[in-house]
Amino acid sequence: MVDKTSINFIIVTLLNFVITIAEILGGIFSGSLALLSDALHNLGDTGAIVLSFVAHLISKKDKNKHKTFGYERAETLAAFTNGIILIVICVFLFIEACMRFAKPEPIKGNLMLIVALIGLAANLISMIMMHRDSKHNLNVKSTFIHMLSDALSSIVVVVGALIIRAFNCDWLDPVLTILVSVFILYEAIQVTLKAANVLMESNPSINLEKVKQLMLDLPEIENVHHVHLWKYSDSMTMLDAHINVPTSLKVSDLEKIYTQVQEKLEPLGINHITLQAECKRGIKEKMIVVGKTD
């Protein structure tokens, strides 16, 4: 059964595809590079929405012997791919805008305005459709942010079309293109870096010293070492660590310690913890040994 989020993805994808075609044709016939830049932005976002939708479907698949963690990282891969595509598009548009300064072309402001208004209306509808689910689904939220940037880009193009129509200042078109490109480039870099950090299993800005102190607050834990802390997906932050405990502890005591550690670290956003109990091995080791690969 197709869920409501999937239906919203399909509708928003179709809307963005229609906007893209309309703005490409409008940009060609009006001579507006700003309109073409917004069209390419929408084309990138259409691909982003499709990837997000496919990732949304794949992430729902159950774990199996081949994917023991499941398929949640499909969404991260989609985000990384979308970010790279957006960066390439922005660089291309920036170069085109700079070339347009050297060889300005006349702009048909009326056609540019009509197409830009259609794009703005469709982007606002897409935003509204994705807003509700964006509150509790990060994948949907990333799509909502794309729609928000699309709406802002459309507003810029509408304002530019009005000014060009009123004052016939064609130089404003490449200026607007550069402004939109810089804005989208910043957003694309942020998304790409975030996705790359997840794929590289980076620490999601959690203070390791605080993690260690919370664990050492338990009297049975004498030392914490061999620590790995990483974000597997948007919904799962994982910790793997070795702890030193007295030799007198029983297995049943360890189970209680594991539960207590889980309760202490959950407020930090760590929701998947694997601990290995040891007695003397590694008792003098630090959490992280710089330069050492485990």
From TrEMBL:
**Membrane spanning residue stretches:** 6-28, 40-59, 79-99, 111-131, 143-164, 171-189
Give the record's keywords alphabetically: Ion transport, Membrane, Transmembrane, Transmembrane helix, Transport
Keyword Transport on entry: yes
Q: List, alphabetically, the GO terms of the cellular component aspect.
A: plasma membrane
Tell me the superkingdom of the source: Bacteria
Q: What is the lineage of its organism?
A: Bacteria, Bacillati, Bacillota, Bacilli, Lactobacillales
Q: What is this protein called?
A: Zinc transporter ZitB
Membrane-topology annotation of the record: Multi-pass membrane protein
Where in this chain does the record put each Cation efflux protein cytoplasmic domain? 205-278
> In which organism is this protein found?
Lactobacillus hominis DSM 23910 = CRBIP 24.179
Query: How far does the signal peptide extend, from start to end residue?
Result: none
Per the UniProt record, one Pfam family is: Cation_efflux
Where is this protein localized, as stated in its record? Membrane
What would be an example GO MF term here? zinc ion transmembrane transporter activity
Domain named Cation efflux protein transmembrane: which ranges?
10-200
| Family membership noted in the UniProt record | Belongs to the cation diffusion facilitator (CDF) transporter (TC 2.A.4) family. SLC30A subfamily.
Q: Which Gene3D superfamilies match?
A: Cation efflux protein transmembrane domain (1.20.1510.10), Cation efflux protein, cytoplasmic domain (3.30.70.1350)
